[in-house]
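hiii, so i know i said id send this last week but things got crazy w the move. better late than never?? heres the sequnce for the chain we talked about at the cafe, plus the structure i predicted for it. fair warning i was half asleep when i ran it
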Amino acid sequence: MIHRIFAKSKLPLSPGRAVTIPEIDAALDVPTERFLKAAEQILSQLLRAEADIDIRGYRESRTVAVGEHAHQQLVDVRGVGFYQMDLRRLAPMDREEEFRMARRYEFFKMRLERELTRAGVAAEVAAKAVSKSRAEIDAALKGRPRSCYLERCVDQLEELRNLYIEGALHIVLGTVQRYRGLGVDSPDLIQEGNASLFQAIEGFDWRREVRFRTYAQYWVQQAVLKMLYNSSRTVRIPVWVQKILGRVRRAQDEGRRAGHEPTHAELAQKLGLPVEKIDWVLSTKRYAVSLDAERGGEEGALTLLQSLADEDAVPVPESVPVGDLRASLEAVLSDLSEREQQILRRRFGLGGSEPETLGQIAMDFGISAERVRQLESAALGRLKKPSAKARLAAFVE
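okay and structure toks below
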């Protein structure tokens, strides 16, 4: 067992010396039925000496191993190029590493659970806390003294869990690529898939001799689908309704391939559901339309919002203010020079004439178009003075 390993390496088992991950792996490399007994014996040795486990050294060895996978083939997902570059710096787990990591993780949880029990935490609470976040562990230890070794056990379990997740991150890309372009951005799907890996490592049982990759893909797919169900529509529809819609859609596709459009009654009979439920579920198959969408899909056409009636709008005859706009406008323009008045009248078509361009006005005045623009700007600036604005205030909304 572990004391034999230290005897071979001639290193004493003491608090000052950290046990390496390969040494732990070698000690845990026993038949499945003997794993718990071997783990208990190792724990007794470690806890008695309060010896640490060298997680940092193992991470460094994994970093060195990345060079062997520098050109690893990852599923190409558009829009996450920088993420994929970062992912290539992490060495993925192969089949052997998956089983070793699962054994290590169970052993580390056993060690922390034992320490929590020694600190006075109930066995049932400790067993649940080690599978949760650090906040859950802190809640279980509330009001109880903490030893430095207990804190190191918590840190090392978190570090091993992070290494476990990092080695499985590449699993998510394949699922995200399959469901890309369905209404949710790829980075959001990747985030949900990565979060589901924490559930996967807690539920994985290495004793069944099934690869962690196979087991984790189920959790990733469920997380991605749930994200699509909850976020792809403006109005959220319950997941169970969308699942029935998926079944209905597949049944409709089968009927169309056979050359027949199935009726609601035929769909109900095939799916084993009441016709009323089929009618109701299909009635939810509606999508939101933006008010800024152009009608007819033509550029420059009226938007949907512009074509809707404004119930709060005041009729035109009632909205015209009392007073003579023409007389007020002439009074305001009289404060300008003759040339400025002519430029504004011709530029904006005042008095019923057609508006003219800067070039047309400049040709008649014998000056440049830029000079006309400057005179126009100066005249408009004078019309914005408080005295002029007060005369026109009644005609401005």
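btw The beta strands are 19-20, 53-54. thought thatd interest u
miss u guys!!
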